[in-house]
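Before our next group meeting I need something from you. Please put the record directly below this note.
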Amino acid sequence: MLPWLIRRVLMLVPVFLAVSVVIFSILHFLPGDPIDNLLKVGSPASARAKMEARYGLDRPLPVQYGIWLGKVLQGDLGTAIVARRPVAELIAQAMPHSLRLGGLALLFSSVVGVTLGIIAALWRDRWPDRAIMGGVLVGSTMPNFWLGLILMLVFSVWMGWFPVSGARGWNSLVLPVLTIGLGGTALVTRITRVAMIEAVRQDFVTLLHAKGLPPWRIELLHVLRHALIPVVTILALRIGWILGGAITVEVVFARPGLGTLLIKSLGQHDYPVVQACLLMLAMAVMLGTLLGDVVQAIMDPRVRAAMG
């Protein structure tokens, strides 16, 4: 398995380079630059030229990209142009909030989604299945920011159970976690239900019934273990998407985090900070993909056999 893992990691290198080019290019092609936020109104052109030379913005874009990528590969994310602080320091302050929010949302969507998927599969085509899948349909089509505003209106403004915004105490995490987790719950529920139904049709299930094993043991121990393979893969893939989805939720609930830092820096055209934030989100998606492949190989002997 080790040679396959090494090849799989090496495959991420060109993906990382391509993503870095896209991030750098799109950001620098947007109108405006961070110098606009540093100069006073009416400043002469010489002041702008001096400022651009100080931050290396007067060089050709390929040269700027090469310098930036070289520093990133050395672990240097640069210095924020507007905030005038190391980018790594800004991300280190924001990342724990996003990881806490994303981790709890992933845990919520995993536990609730798998549980609802099992119930829907066990009571297939009956009222529990229809009720769960109806709720899943609503949850999967509801935008995060809209759901967050509704939860905020009901549970914060009307009932006063949770704070409207901020990150003080555990109760400030409840509504943001629900906002992100409910969308993931819908996806996990659908996949678990389909995987359970498909697993029940396999020959080994018929053999287990013929051996006289209790139906509950077959469903919960053997069928569920087989059905969890695609579920675990999807959950690993959602690691990066949950961090990305936290961007809008952090803004809606005015929480500190990577998303709030990204949106603020984007408005200021602070290139080093935005590039670093987007690169972190892209790396989370890539590492989630790698983790999903590794977990699938560990759980499924057929995948391990294909490697060899």
The two ends are 8 Å apart (CA to CA). The chain has a mean pLDDT of 80.
